[in-house]
Amino acid sequence: MTNVYSFDGILVFGLLFICTCAYLKKVPRLNSWLLSEKKGVWGVFYKAAVIGTRLHIAVAASCLAMAFYVIFLK
C-alpha cells in the first residue's frame, strides 16, 4: 500500500492524475465539461491533460518505472 503522504505516494498520485486527465481529454463529453476551463482550480485538470498529451512518452516511462518500484522494490 502506498501512503499518500510519502514522496513516492505523491509521485504515484501525480502520475495517475496526469494519465487520467489525458485520457479524459480524448472523451468528447468530458473534454467539454471538465477541461474547458484553463484558469483557476479547474484549470489544473486542463494543465495535467496537456502535460499528459505532450509528454506522453515520458509519462508512460515514468508510470512503468513507478510500477516496477512499487511492485518489486517497496
TrEMBL record:
Function comment: Involved in the early part of the secretory pathway.
GO cellular component, one term: Golgi membrane
InterPro entries referenced in this protein's UniProt entry, alphabetically: Kish-B (IPR042863), Ksh1 (IPR009653)
TM region(s), chain numbering: 6-24, 44-72
Alphabetical UniProt keywords: Golgi apparatus, Membrane, Signal, Transmembrane, Transmembrane helix
Family of the protein in this entry: Belongs to the KISH family.
Keyword Membrane (UniProt): yes
Pfam family, one: DUF1242
The species this protein was found in: Amphilophus citrinellus
Protein location: Golgi apparatus membrane
Membrane topology, as annotated: Single-pass type I membrane protein
Database matches in PANTHER family: PROTEIN KISH-B
Record protein name field: Protein kish
Upper lineage: Eukaryota, Metazoa, Chordata, Craniata, Vertebrata
Keyword Transmembrane assigned: yes
